User: Fold these one by one.
Assistant:
Number 1:
Amino acid sequence: MGVLSRLKERLTRTRRAISDGISGLFKGGRPIDDALFAELEELLYTADLGKVAAEVTGELARAHRRGEIHGEEDVRAALKGELLQRLDQPGGEVSLDHHPTVILIAGVNGSGKTTSIAKLAHRFREQGRRVLVAACDTFRAAASDQLEIWAERSGVEVVRGGDGADPAAVAFDAVEAAVVRGADVLIVDTAGRLHTQKNLMDELSKIVRVIQRRIPEAPHEAWLVLDATNGQNAVQQAREFTAAIEVTGLIVAKLDGTARGGAVFGIREAMGIPVRYIGTGETMELLEVFEPEAFVDALLRPDGEE
Amino acid sequence: MTSPARAIRRISFFIQELPSSAALDGGAQRTFPWIGRKPLSSSRAGQRRRDSFRLGRPGLSTVFESLTKRLSSAFQSLRGERKVTADNVEAGLEEVRLALLEADVHFKVARDLVARVRDSVLGEEVLQGVDASQQFAHAVHTALVDLMGPEDATLDLEGPRPTVILMAGLQGAGKTTTCAKLARLLVEKHGRKPLMVAADVKRPAAVEQLRVLGKQISVPVFHQAGLAPEEVCARGVERAKIDGADVVILDTAGRLHVDDELMDEVARIAERTRPRNQVLVVDAMTGQDAVRSAEEFHARLTLSGVILTKLDGDARGGAAVSLKAVTGRPILFVGTGEKIEDLDAFGPERMAGRILGMGDVVGLVERAQETVDEKEAQASFERMVMGSFTLEDLFGQIRMIQRLGPLKKVLGMMPGMGGMLDKVDLDDGHMKRLEALGQSMTPRERLMPQVLDMSRRRRVARGAGQELSAVNQLLKMHKGMGQMMKKMGMGGMAGKAKRKALEGLSSDGSLAAGDLPKGGLLSNLAGGLPDLSKLGGAGGGPGGGPGGGPGGLPGMGGLGDLMGGGAGRAPGSSATRQSGSKRKKQKKNRRRKGRKK
């Protein structure tokens, strides 16, 4: 199964909402007018596109006035162009050419960090790399246990401290262990924190500083995990996390429910942070490298077309 | 009279006076480093001054601009009009719709709400003298409150025991944490004896997580490995009967509403255990999808209510509106923090305020109710007015504020302050450092600060691990506050103005929308928060009327000054009735006088 069709299957609910919605708009040979664009805008809002929805529709309406849009196909094409333009980023897998490559994972509570880390670890392990995971969520009860169980399943090692241990200390130990044991990738799990909690955001910066004490250029990647069901607040999250650490990429988790994922556009536009991976299901394999074209296609292509 | 709101007023006054007294030596930032000022571009500062009442987050994207602000431009067309008509109202309504969408209210719900607002305002007279935007903000606020109400929804704890509570929701909504919070609440407030059942067999270590939480609050947790979730739940209920537990809380696995298999499972659990309460746990940050997932859960379960989590973040929480509209079920509680006691009752008023960017005064009062010792506050206040305000009192106040929770959270609950939180850099650590200084003093020093000579000051600084300058700043702050208090107590100039402003509080001390001083923050808000008189709650009004207590509840005037904006005016701040420029001048004069001395 190709990437596109797999994605399509995974994002089927989202696609239905938007794609079928567009088909619905044109039912009965309806003329393209302001009312139609207003409905299109609402449609895009359901995918949590936020103000991007208004912008995109505005562009389309202007194009229509210039006489560039005549029917449903034009609308789809123009929409795709507009959306793709907002996701402008190179696709493909991140290079992991440092040894160890240190990847810091952060996000708000319940966004799906630990599960995403399990999937990442599994993925890198499958690629034949030696993976070490640092369980720096020492706050939430049994978080380290959760990570350990996942890690066991995919055969990666875990460095952990006790509940309530200093997360920065665990991170330091883990970096040390990664160097000593010759790991290829070190993934650092952190506790969920709301971006409004200054002390916890400071803690995040501290973890980075402590890691840098051992490997000055680390962490090589810092990824923010976003819950795809989050609405417009996701942009604010991205903003605040970026202020605390240098976020180099996004992982969009839980993209397998209904109409979701639109927040990606807003974040990409506001912050310029590329999306790295999307989590599309509960099993370990269901983590896809983010491909903008495939993603937008999956959103817009009507059923029965490949 | 027990009146937590009164205590709150005092506290807000205290917070307010910190920076004011600091301004005397022109070094607020030095003296109160926790209120750092982020750089403000000059053009933006200018705009902030013009919009002295704006409530939103200046400088941020439109997403966080408050409705009132947005409306004021949209309703330019209403200037000079006498009646609201379909023609002159549309632009404003479109703004309302966008504001709701940006707060993550579902688009259909937003559309209905707009229609309702349109109906309620059409044909209405345009109130001259009041900004039309306020008139509309009020209408929107009312529509939101109507939709999200009624207020007093709670768990159904009647019927045969044990009462079963089923908790369901998407992954990561916060079910497990909320189970523990709910269990604690049932113990503390209802005197019940709960048992928690760990039925999340899916997520690794979920059972362990609940066990750890259970231990923290001394509530037993039932789990039996190797069984299907519905079986675990059924046996949990049986166990509760044997152990004499009278409430059973079922913590189920997180599930996607499109996952038929898992949705069947949760329906089976409900069938086996017949829960009187079937609660959907929803993340406040949820976007448009909230509606669809709620619909699905509601179709499979007989939901009795919703708990909204992670409201301590800055999500507007528009999901709350959508949920109520779709399920027709009330929102029972809201999760407001990581600590186990952070579970509050839901108030439609304050939620509407939040969605529209208007603060959460009611929540603040409730929080105070739980944490503030009224007697202590009263005694301390009396000493202040009598001019015998000691360092002991100062530390008492600091402790009181700390008990309310993180400063940022407290300020965020005040109307108009939400918008400033990104401008101030509040650091609770400095409160702690101040306290450390206090702990490094002898009781005598705390009661008689004048004995603190250089040698003692040095000792205190050493003892607290801080610089001598920190001690000096503390003493300066204390002195400043004492002077301010004395002035008020004697009814000096500031006191008079204050009293006048206090009359804006109605006779029972509650804030009445009608007679708020014009130009003040609340006058702009009055429309939006129509029923502030509820503030005092059943326990009596929040203040003793004129002279009864300093400062209005949202008396953040001083802080507003400090932050360079005109925002945050409120009745009770001495500057309420003055224009921004006048205020500035006066401040300058004060500063000069301070220097001369």
Number 2:
Amino acid sequence: MIPFVPNPLALLIAELSLMVPVLLAIDPYTPLVFFVMGLVNAVAVGKLRVIQFLKILVPLSTVSLSLFFMNLLFPAQGVNGLARGWAVFLRSFSLISLSTAYITMVSPYDVIRALMQNWRLPYRIGYALFAGWNTIPLIRRDIELIQKAQDIRSGGQKSKKIPLSRLPVTLLSGIILHGERLSLSMAARGLDRCKKRSFVVLVPWKRSDTVYDILIILTAALWWILLIHFHVFTFELG
Amino acid sequence: MTLLRLKDLSFRFRGTKKAILSNINLEVRSGDRILLYGDSGSGKSTLLGVMAALAPEYVGGELSGVRELFYTRMGVVLQNPEAQIITPTVEEEIAFPLENQGMDPDLIRRKVGFQLKNFQLEALKTRLPLSLSGGECQRISLASALVQEPEILFLDEPTSYLDEDRARQFFADLEKLPATTAVVLVEHRFELAAPFCTQWFRLVHGAVEVQATAPSPFLSGGPGFQNQVGGGFWGTTTPTAGAEEPILRVRGLSHRYPEGERAILDGVGFTLRRGEILAIQGSSGSGKTTLLKKLLGLLKSERDTIYIHGDDITLSKPQRYYRYMAYLSQNPEHLFVSDTVRGELESAGPEGLALARRFRLDHLLDRNPWKLSEGEKRRLSLCIALALDRDLILMDEPTYGLDQESRRELADLLLPLLEAQRALLIVSHDTPFLRTLPCRILRLTQGRLVDLPPPLEAPRRVDPVEARP
């Protein structure tokens, strides 16, 4: 039996359908339910890489902790700070976990390919996104070199003559130049002229993706209805 | 068969009054191998862009005269390998133009497979192109151009960013082209391009001059720096080798990346004194950049390996040794901190403005440094380095992106630095350029520094291979 590998967009829909109830809830149970569902989905379907997931999740969780302590130490008038802080913590932690799980389950290149192939993202934008993603390590390298060149120029002193805005200006100018060259390279190879292009690396939307999304949405809806029915779900936007 | 014809063609960029190309008459036929050369800013790349229907179509500008394009399939390879890579795999990068034509994916895979085999890139098929060397990226770009089975190939300084060996490999790859494919090449490495081309056109102030013979290679041409070596050059400087503590002393310097099988630097050592130039040469991935990063403090070094003015810099704070050092990165813009050339020179040091005339920058003082030509930017960065009044000047690939004339000019401009008793460490892949300098050239090979062997022979011609799957 061929293992089910979902289309990145199917996975996105699934994750979003789990995130919506969490986004609207302020009780402590709804986030927990959907967090567990998301985790099961990520491990069973998305083949979650746990170490990478934790590496991103742990530092981001400090945001949730900050929200907890903010509500605990500075509660609004007439509000139980501990209960409120716990609920806010669980909501933000669940949202961060679900989005982190998605990031670690898919390749950004596959998401862009799928957007072009399945959701008709204009090719020009899709390949600009490819090029942009490729440029990130080059930007990191350039930042290091610019900082070093300017540190050495100032003799290692924090000179007043070199304004703080100089690094972004230098960096941005380089990025614009790089972008112009990439754009010309795409044009030279006929990207601007193509109306319907083919792909050697396909990210197809299969019937199983539709079934998978329907199942996830139905399960999420069922749990949401149950939580509402038993007055566990408490609505609050934002 | 005529592939393109230009009649009395002129071209000007938007917002400029002066035409960069004027009254060009040119015809390219099947099988032509044309070298376009000329000074920086003479319009070579613009002419190439006009012929490849990229200018004014994608860069703007105003075209007058007649441009007749008869070809239906063309390939383009540009200068900077990094700025041509779009997709995340080698296979997709080569397939990119065919995908844009909407070709059947199975047919694309067959054609791409042929090019992968032709360029011996099969093992790299699924690799991220940007994780490969510049030479490999440029071969991928060439394969991507050839996969379209072009009638005409436009190459804009394709070897500018490649080391000697990879540039030779690139020209060896070009030799595999079918005899009917026309090539229009802008290239400043005449020593490599001249044997490949059969027609030579020189651009002078936007006009084409047909040349009867190939241009002279860098090593033997021009009234440049090289001619001064035997005469005035050493006479005007007094290297103090052996007389005092070296400005830079490196000994037993090693480095191994966690993912590397072997040490990229393995006990490297050298000394550099006042009035000396030391050039470190080596192919991509040989460790040149690692060595430079060690000297700049971007990578940690072990104790007792790098000394500047007798101080072990691995034990010092950067503030202590940066005041002896100037660093010119591959990209001269990295050094710029002001909005005018005047501001750059004034902030560099009290002598900055006085040096402007010597570096022919005095008429550009109120210009934005970002808007200078590549050659002018390089002159400005050298002028800043001299005005900073530092003993040790580190230069990283100073000839990247420079044309023949600018490289000669750069060689000339190093003279004032040596006259001022500076010590220069140049990291470069540009062997012909380095050979014009009065310097010791060391080559980094397998982590060790060895003296550079004598010049290599010209590229060997190989039998053309039919480039159709």
